[in-house]
Amino acid sequence: MRERLAPGLLIAAPSMSDPRFRGAVVLLAESGTDGALGFVINRQMDLTLGDVAREVGFQLERDPPEEQVFSGGPVSPERGWVLFRSSEFHPDDDGGVLTVHEDIQLGATLDLLREFLSQRDVRSFRFLLGYSGWGPGQLEAELGEGAWLPLEASSDLLFDTPPDEMWEKAIRQLGLEPGTFFVGGAGSA
């Protein structure tokens, strides 16, 4: 196992028992003795950015964006996060922006969302509602049980891979074949 988990990706093992994370690819933004913070990056919701803009009362000069919103996880599903490729988008005020990895940044302010929505030429982004969190020692225990497979973070995987293909591609990047796993059943560990 890698010594440092964040920043990195967590790939749900095929034996993942929690239905909220089955088939999930999670961008782990922070981890330490106090716990861990991550975002599911491959679960689209039946909601668009235009819906979100209307909900928060933004007056847009252009047609509402129709890009899908993603479910970042079960914690605080009312809270929005903008995940973007830093080489494509440079916010005016980056005070509330966290650099997660080389070309991956994350922010959660309404000003950032407003600015992001006004610059519609940005292609590499995810708007996430909610996040995934683990208490002290919880993620390490789940890793020890084989629920997650760690992988280096990659902006190419995150932004250039269709969400419905991301889990399988990540599994293959680990050198594994998705169809060769034994999943659950009697006698499984």
In N-to-C order, the SSE pattern is: EEEEHEEEEHEHEHH
Count the DSSP helices: 5
Mean pLDDT over the full residue set: 84
Radius of gyration: 17 Å
Unreliable stretches (pLDDT < 50, length at least 5) are 182-189
Q: CATH superfamily assignment? A: VC0467-like
Major β-sheet annotation: 10 strands, mixed
By DSSP, the count of extended strands is 10
CATH topology: VC0467-like
Shape: globular
Count of domain modules: 1
| Overall helicity | 10-25%
Distance between the termini: 19 Å
Overview of the structural elements:
By secondary structure, this protein is of the alpha+beta class. The chain has helices at residues 49-56, 110-118, 138-144, 155-160, 163-173, and strands at residues 8-12, 25-32, 35-40, 44-48, 68-71, 75-85, 97-101, 104-107, 125-134, 148-151. The longest helix is centred in the last third of the chain and has 11 residues, at 163-173. Strands 1, 2, 3, 4, 5, 6, 7, 8, 9 and 10 form a ten-stranded mixed beta sheet that branches. It has one domain: VC0467-like, CATH 3.40.1740.10. It is 22% helix and 33% strand.
Give a quick set of tags describing it:
single chain; 189 residues; alpha+beta; VC0467-like; 10-stranded mixed sheet; 5 helices; 33% strand; globular; disordered C terminus
Topology:
Blueprint: E1 8-12, E2 25-32, E3 35-40, E4 44-48, H1 49-56, E5 68-71, E6 75-85, E7 97-101, E8 104-107, H2 110-118, E9 125-134, H3 138-144, E10 148-151, H4 155-160, H5 163-173
Parallel strand pairs: 5-9
Antiparallel strand pairs: 1-2, 1-10, 2-3, 3-9, 4-5, 6-8, 6-9, 7-8
